[in-house]
Structure formats: structure tokens, C-alpha cells
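Kindly inspect this today.
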Amino acid sequence: MAGHSKWKNIQHRKGAQDAKRGKIFTKLIREVMVAVKIGGADLDANSRLRLAIQNAKGINMPKDNIERAIKKASGAGGEDYVEVTFEGYASDGVGIFVECATDNNTRTVSNIRSYFNKHGGSLGKDGCLEFIFQRKGIFILPAEVLTHDFGEDELTMAMIDAGAEDIEVDGEQITISCEMHDFGNIQKKLTELKIDPQEAGLQRVPITSKAISQETFHKVMKLIDIIEDDDDVQKVYHNIEFDESLLA
């Protein structure tokens, strides 16, 4: 994007989210519970639960928190979360895709609509951003996995053989991307190599990006921050063209 790493948008948003550590714990706990509700508590039979636990461990969530979430979701009478998504536009036509897990869809719809309306945006119909975002498998690895005996070339070849589209090393971390259908193959190969990702999952990556002004950037970021603060919201994606000057 404009001469910069195409993952900088994702990494910038992740950095902002990590500053709200309590919120991140809440969202990952909810993801664990959704995974249990959908596929059960058997780790061997539930790949989504394994991934949710892996991501929770990636931010050093205490084991007790994870076990309580699994137990709560497995029991009768616990919260019954459903997954819903919202697509809309912020100022200057910036695409915003929101993924939620909620136990009260009416509340969530009302909240998300109000956020867009109050901050110069508007919700669209399902599928209105189909031409802007595509789902990709994304794996974030710590740069420490590279050693004298297993360097960047060896990792790159192993990941390409498993189906990776792109591997990018930026000094602190390694970002691997793949098509949705190759996600499991990459995950399996990393397990064989005894490499634990810091984060892994399906993300909505912009196909096309939008250049905006500094003023619009601040407006859109304010909207995104407010959306992310909602407990029902799991992830928010945008298609702003990354430019270092916008972060000044």
C-alpha cells in the first residue's frame, strides 16, 4: 500500500487494540465460548476452539480464565452467543467491516447503527463490501523462530509448500498469509515445526485501499475506536491506504 508493508494497517490496529488489554481478554474469552457452543469442548474434535485457546495463550491469558470460559460455555443456561457481521461506510467512503459475537442481536444492531450514524457513516446491506474485502488466513509469528539452523529461507520454503501466498519478515515479527482453504495446511505445518503463532485466524484483508486526508483519518479512527469498545464487537476492518504521515 503506497510503498509500505501491506500488513501495516492490520498491525497498527492490533497495536491500538493491545493497549486495551482488558477488552482483548473479554473478546478472546467470548471467542472461546462461541467455539465451544458451536463445536463442543473436545479440543481434538474442535479446531476452532484450539485456535481460540492458542490466540488466548498468545497474549498470556491465564489458563484458569480459559478453563472457566470452556466450563461456562459447556454448561446449561450459559450465554448463547451468535455471530453477526455489519458492513458500512465511514467518512469519504472508507469501508468498515464489523464482526460481532452477541447474546442480544437487537442490542447489537442498535448500537452499531448508532455508532455509524453519530460519526458520519452509514450501515449498508450485507455484501455491500464484498468487492473491497476478501478473507485470508493470517499467521503472526515472533521473529525469534528464525535461528541459525532454520532461517528465513527455510521457513519460506516450508510455508510455500504448505500453501502460503506471502511471507513477510519485518524484524520483529513474521506475517504469513494464505487462501482460506489453505489455513489448515499452514496450521498443520507450523505444528510439525513446533512453531506457536502469536496470533492466527481468518481476517478480512482489503482488496482495494482508499487514500484519505489527515482530517478524515482522525474521524474514521474515532469511529473505529468507539465500535471496538463495544463488548459485542470482536473485530473491525477498514480499507484505509496506510501512510506513515497519518499517524503523526
Summary: Residues 1-5 have pLDDT under 50 and may be disordered. The domain at 133-206 is CATH 3.30.70.980 (Alpha-Beta Plaits).
